[in-house]
Amino acid sequence: MSNIAFIGLGQMGKPMASNLIKKGHSLNVYDINKTAISEVQSLGAHSSISPKEAVKGCEFIITMLPNGKLVENVIFGKDGIIHSMDKNSLIIDMSTIHPLESDSLRNRLAEYNIEFMDAPVGRTSDNAIAGTLLILAGGTPSQIERSSPILLCMGSEIINAGGPGKGIRVKLINNFMSISLNALSAEAATLCEALELPLDIAIEVMKGTPAIKSHFTTTWANKVLQNDLTPAFMIELAHKDLGIATDVANQLHVPLSMGAAALEIYNQARAMGRGKQDWTAILEQARINSGLKK
Ligand code: NAD
């Protein structure tokens, strides 16, 4: 069992710290919110008056904070952990922060010979309570091996994201996709309501199509990801169907911002001579637009 400092006892941090305690680890906890501290204290955690105090004698230091500036302050600030931590302990930042901030923290700590890994989490606060978070580990193989017994007290699955800084980057991709899909889903549901169509019927239909199953695992797998752009469904037909949807929405006074942006993307692909290609060629067009493919 390990001595762990846990900093940031919010919606996520509190249940994560609680699960570590339940699994028998000894926890020093710190949060600017004293109520949060006393709730975890009642489970057996030792309360601390600063990050600097919390990390004394701890082998692992976990931060679960709202943003990168706060993580930086907890590490390097006046009462920061850098002033009293054991140089052999491992800092595990589980917050969702900007990858460049995470890189900067890792590089600054390396100057003190202190190890830092990023291990943000996927899923929700319900999963934090149940101990079933998805942990996106960005670290060296030895850091991941060393931290795994701790991480598995908070999550049910660890993804080795491929090296230092890669955990926070795969988290960024995941959030980009799911946050954008939330907005697109809201447009689909609103159009559905304007068409006086029950949402559960639309969901039943979309459950069997890429709309809900995702392109990554359906349409792309045997087409663009295999460099095959021969059409299973042509760009110009997709363009026509999206045009019908946006036209109907327009008549019903339903704004479709995401839909309009997507129509423009198909417009562009058509203009670039991709009309007869498979609709997954949208990926190729995006790569060209980004300079990733010449
Ligand atoms: P939260 O706001 O509920 O909790 C943050 C905690 O940090 C609070 O208790 C706050 O008092 C504390 N805090 C703020 N400044 C501090 C400081 N200087 N020193 C010590 N403690 C400080 O946020 P959350 O929902 O627990 O999210 C934490 C992180 O996890 C965020 O980076 C978030 O993006 C990420 N995340 C959240 C979810 C979710 O569903 N809530 C899911 C995945 C990832």
UniProtKB/TrEMBL annotation:
<dbReference type="InterPro" id="IPR006115">
    <property type="entry name" value="6PGDH_NADP-bd"/>
</dbReference>
<feature type="active site">
    <location>
        <position position="171"/>
    </location>
</feature>
<dbReference type="GO" id="GO:0050661">
    <property type="term" value="F:NADP binding"/>
</dbReference>
<protein>
    <submittedName>
        <fullName>Sulfolactaldehyde 3-reductase</fullName>
        <ecNumber>1.1.1.373</ecNumber>
    </submittedName>
</protein>
<keyword id="KW-0560">Oxidoreductase</keyword>
<dbReference type="InterPro" id="IPR008927">
    <property type="entry name" value="6-PGluconate_DH-like_C_sf"/>
</dbReference>
<feature type="domain" description="6-phosphogluconate dehydrogenase NADP-binding">
    <location>
        <begin position="3"/>
        <end position="160"/>
    </location>
</feature>
<dbReference type="GO" id="GO:0016054">
    <property type="term" value="P:organic acid catabolic process"/>
</dbReference>
<dbReference type="InterPro" id="IPR013328">
    <property type="entry name" value="6PGD_dom2"/>
</dbReference>
<feature type="domain" description="3-hydroxyisobutyrate dehydrogenase-like NAD-binding">
    <location>
        <begin position="165"/>
        <end position="284"/>
    </location>
</feature>
<dbReference type="Pfam" id="PF03446">
    <property type="entry name" value="NAD_binding_2"/>
</dbReference>
<dbReference type="Pfam" id="PF14833">
    <property type="entry name" value="NAD_binding_11"/>
</dbReference>
<dbReference type="GO" id="GO:0051287">
    <property type="term" value="F:NAD binding"/>
</dbReference>
<dbReference type="InterPro" id="IPR029154">
    <property type="entry name" value="HIBADH-like_NADP-bd"/>
</dbReference>
<dbReference type="InterPro" id="IPR015815">
    <property type="entry name" value="HIBADH-related"/>
</dbReference>
<dbReference type="InterPro" id="IPR002204">
    <property type="entry name" value="3-OH-isobutyrate_DH-rel_CS"/>
</dbReference>
<dbReference type="GO" id="GO:0061596">
    <property type="term" value="F:3-sulfolactaldehyde reductase activity"/>
</dbReference>
<keyword id="KW-0520">NAD</keyword>
<dbReference type="InterPro" id="IPR036291">
    <property type="entry name" value="NAD(P)-bd_dom_sf"/>
</dbReference>
